[in-house]
Amino acid sequence: MRMQPSSHSLSLAAIAAIAAAMFSVGSAASAQSAAPPDLTGSWERYRGPAGDAATPPPESQPPLKANLLAEWQKRRAAEREADARGVPLATNYTHCIPDGVPSMMSGPFPFEIVQSKSQVNIAQEAYSQVRRIYLAKPQLTLADIELGFYGRSVGEWKGDTLVVDTIGIKDYVKFRDVPHTPDMRITERFKLVRPDILWDEITITDPTVLEKPWTVTFAYRRMPDYEIIEYVCEDNREYADEEGVTRLRLKGEDSP
Amino acid sequence: MARTIKLPVRLAAAALLGVGLPAAAHHSFAIFDHSQTYTLKGTVQSFQWTNPHGYIDLAVSDGPPGIERFTLELTSINMLRRAGWKSSDVNAGDKVTAIVAPLMNGQQGGLLLELKMADGRTLVPPVPAADTFQRSK
Questions:
Q1: Whether ipTM exceeds 0.90
Q2: What pTM was estimated for this model as a whole?
Q3: Nearest to A106 among B23, B26, B53 (CB)
């Protein structure tokens, strides 16, 4: 199955598809055997040069419903204004709270994919985050799971594309500060657009808050031989003061 | 990971779209003064190799008036490792010259941009968009 790019990314995606077809010319017979590509290994965000077909379209603004969009824009403006004054507002990250799905796919640090026939694990180096995608199990309903940072993910290979369905993300685990309901559904399409460039096309559906599904695509490049480094938030000296402003606790000062 | 980001261009694009910059650290670097740097000479009291940031505690012998002790914040140690740093690169007792972007709120701390060691080494942490910090003469 081909990825389903949004209209403005059509030309880039078309070029990528042609490139992918060129790479697969010599292996048409093996492709018919339907063995999925091996994504196992380390990856990091790829931001290629302008005009590079493997660079996905820029991130679009979330198609929030009008009143929510106004609130979201107001919050973003407040963040920018606070940054400009040198008093940035604290975020989950400031408190060493991991970003969860799908933010962890924005790749602050490299991540590792380990793939088997029945499961794909993705371990993001930042905050040692791990998500598990079950390939041989059905999705559950919200009634059967507890909301969390990574939700519950099931996946299926459709040709050369791994299609992943995720539900069950906690309300304050936000992507780009965008509000969502427990009904948010995340559909991802992982596909190699080049042998060493992977795309994750992320589509968020949440009809209560979004006018239409919102798609964001990230690209990653393979990091041969890179071994993921451990990350423990061992001594977090940053804290939010009573006004929500980030401050640094200096040596010898008491914790707030 | 030490990719070069042309921040002004990215900021302009981000402002246009109302979309945030990619998360590069565990907190915004806006807490540090982008308009000036301090040059601090002193003796390392400790080099702490931890996440979410590494820290150097510096006893200052020469720097702006009134500064005797200064906390140098480094990037995440994961970023340091990828840039080739080791926890043994800096040790208590080392005489160093540090170039830092001070905290905006006047606290005695700042972001380490460059560390000159007595043996001639210059250690540069992989600060994202490091070129946006204006160096004082």
A1: no
A2: 0.82
A3: B23
